[in-house]
Every structure is written in C-alpha cells, then in structure tokens.
Model the fold of this input.
Amino acid sequence: MTARTITPDLSSRDPDWWRQAVIYQIYPRSFADADGDGLGDLRGATQRLTHLAALGVDALWLSPFYPSELADGGYDVDDHRDVDPRLGTLDDFDALAAEAHRLGLKVIVDLVPNHTSHRHAWFRRALEDGPGSPARDRYVFRDGRGAHGELPPTDWQSVFGGSAWRRVPDGQWYLHLFTPQQPDLNWQNEEVRADFRTTLRFWSDRGVDGFRVDVAHALAKDLSEPLRDLGAPELSRDAALTAFAPGTHPFFDRDEVHAVYRDWRKIFDSYRPPRTAVAEAWVPDPARRALYARPEELGQAFNFGYLQTGWDAAELRRTITDSLAAAHAVGASATWVLSNHDVVRHASRLMLPPGTDDNAWLLSGGHAPAVDEAAGLRRARAATLLMLALPGSAYLYQGEELGLPEVADLPTEVIQDPVWEQTGRVRKGRDGCRVPLPWTTTGPSYGFGPGGAWLPQPARFASYAVQAQDGVEGSTLELYRTALRLRRKLLDGESLTWSDDTPAGVLRFDRCDGWRCVTNLSGTDVALPAGEVLLSSAPLQDGRLGPDTTVWLGR
Done:
C-alpha cells in the first residue's frame, strides 16, 4: 500500500464551493470498465471524466472502491485505506484525482465508519483472540441469552432482515446492523476513533476534497448493560426512531454521535481549503437530520425526505419549505437528491401510484403496475428542473442525465444484491438501479467496456446511450447540460419566495436573483406566467404549460 502524500491541484480554493454545488455520484462497478472484465474500475472512470466536465457538474462522489468481498456492493470494507485490485490501485486513484482536478472537478469519496468487512484484519484478530480481548472490544461482542447463550443478546434487527446478531464458534455474538459480513465497530473504543482520524488524513493528503459518510446516524450505540430490546423489532426504521425520545434510540441517531463529527471537523479544517462532508443519515425529522450538517460537524446531510416525497404539489412545497428552514437554522445549505444507488430510479419511481410498495413492484418485474417509460421520463425531466432550481446542493446519480429507468425485470438468477438472499428472497434489492451505463448504441455492453457487464443491460438501453443523445436537441442529456450551464449563471443566494397565485397542482417560486421556476404537477395545461422562457423540460404549446412540465423564466 502506497503511503506517499500527494500535493493536490485543487480546482478552487473557495471554502464554500459545496454550498451550491452539483455533485455526480459514480458507482464504480457500473460506470465504466477499462480492462474488459465486466466490472467497472477506476481507470474506466478516469477515461470518462470528460463526460462529467461537459455535463457541467462541480464534483464527483465515488461510491466505495476499497478492497471488499462485495457482500454489500463494496460497503463491506477490508481496508479503508486501499483500492480493491479488481478496481485498480492507489496509483489509479491518484491519476483519477489528478484528472478530475485538471478538469475543474472536486473529488468526494465514500467513508464507511459504522462497520468493516468480516475479512478485515481487525475482525480476524478479534475471532482469534477470543472473549474479553482488546481486539474484540473494537467491535460489539456480547454473550447470548438463554440457558446456554443460544439466543441473540437483543431483539435488534438487521436493516437487511433477520437478527442483527451472528454467533461465532466460541459462543459469543457480534452485532451487524447490515449483512453478517459487516460487523459493527465499537465507537466507544479509542483505537477505532484514532484509526478513522488516520483514514481521513490519508485520503485528504491524496487530494480528496470531501467525504460522504455512510450510515452517519448509527455510529453511537447504547452499550450499557443490560442491552435494551426495541420491544417491537418489526417496526420500520422511521417508526422505530419515533418510538423513542429524540436521541435515545439504542443504535440510531443517538445524541453522542455528534461528538465524533465535531472531532472530525478539526481535521477537515486543518486543510486549505477545508475538506467537506455530507452525512447519509436516515433520520425522519428534518431538525434532527440538520444537526449532522452543523458547521462544527459535517456541514451537509442528505435530504432523503425530499427523495421520498411523492409527485404532489402540496407535499413538495411542504418538504422544500421544511428542508430549507432546517438547513438555515443550523447555518448549512440544503441538499436535494432524486436517485442514488439504493433506491428505484426516479424516472420509474415517480410514476408509481401513491402507496405502491416498491419491492412488490420490483418482484412483479415492473408490470404491476406497468410504468409508461415515456411518461416517466417526462415527469423525471420536470422533477430534475425543479430540483436544480432550488437553493443548495444537488446530488445526481449516474445515468439519470440519460433518463435511465429502473431495470425492474432483472431475472432473479442474476441478482447479486445480498438483501435478496438475506431476506429469504422476499426483497429483490437494488440491482435494478445499478445496471452498468450505456455509452454507445452498439457493442457487447453498449460501451461500458470492451467485454460484457456484471449485470445484464436491456436492449432498450441503446436508445438511452450517451452516443444516442450527445448533441441531439431536446435529449435528456442536453437538457441536463443546458440546465447546469444556466444554473451556474443564475444561482445567487440561498432563499426562495413562493407564489400563492397559482392554479391547483402548480408550484411556482421566485429566486432572489431575478428568475422563477414553475412546475405543473396537475393533469391539465395551465397558463404560463409572464417572463422570458429560459428552459423548459418539455415543449410549450401556445403559451401553455403542460402536465408534468417545469419551466425556468427570467423576469
């Protein structure tokens, strides 16, 4: 493992570049494959960075590329300071960072602090050294309940289904809030805290501009004896959180987790410009989520409430208003996201009727109900222009600029998401949004690489390929390029003013910098307000704004 320090050629030294940035998420295994083995890699990503520069984003976020068994898509990390040999080397990472900075792009990497892989040297040592050893104290090991310790220590459930405890041969149990291959770390252990300080400096010294913190809300756990049961383990994550007083859930969103991030902020601020961070915190209360985004902590937090809001004008207005207020209250900027590597792509999801169970839809192969892809793309384009008009940072997921739908009809025999087997083949999982990207209209993997792809791409992907849309007026790719170019010119300030003089089902807000956004979420045409049309997600007819259409207007 290379230990040298890189002097980064940062594209900008503005310490607040992230407040209004557009960040593009790369899921490395599915972005681009340079060596033809069917798995995306760092060299492939480097070769395609010009696509991001031409798109007009400010930064890229790399999902995990660390050594991994891939028991959970790379989030089961063997070594937090190295690169999986299947994806490249540290030299390949350095080359990617250098090329990104040459193109004016920031680099954000995924940090996975809640757990390691069961193949991590620390966990192997914990198994060898046995109960009561210092190596075991780095993780959460406990004796079981029952006459012979044959029952799990608590009723805590894994996010992926089943007990969150796994028994080892000597009889003790270890905690894994995700797959059994992802043992949870004990963040009360100073060795754990010190090791992650080293990791933050390791990547910052290599030129990384920021970090996306995986499962940021789960690091702190109530490990006082006796461990507490949830009492109703079948509750959803959000329901389980609201069943406890804020900050007191046994392992999610505990108040003491914030001490970790205040400690990290000292490291971030020791660099010039300071390193940035964004929390993945699945916390239903916007005010609680905003705590992770305080300036003395991570600075930003993903706004999953916005992602989960349906295609409804009143709901969206309420979510946007609450999100802006929560971010403003702590001195952060808001964040907006429509898709990522864990959810159904929004070109499909936004067409599902309210109350639809996403998993049931996936299990039906996308047929119950059937989704009109053309209508879904129209709605997705409108949602994108709405999101990009909002003050704050926007996070894009690879392929959404092509209008990619969810691949809901993946045959069950090709599924690789561990949630499929972990839940007894009840939940189909997230592979449908992780299918490798199409770059060209032909080839064994539509330009993803010289060979095949680790997940099969449907034939219809050819029409969504970059090659099919590049330079084509009205294409989704060109819509994104135009929107991002205009956004860079138009955005100024972090507030908006709602207009109440609108028809039912229509959202309209003015920005302090002299332009406005109007989105028609109703089922009928509405009159277009006065103003110069700067950009529209769909063609306008005779001064009318059609359903599922967003327009940007100059004053």
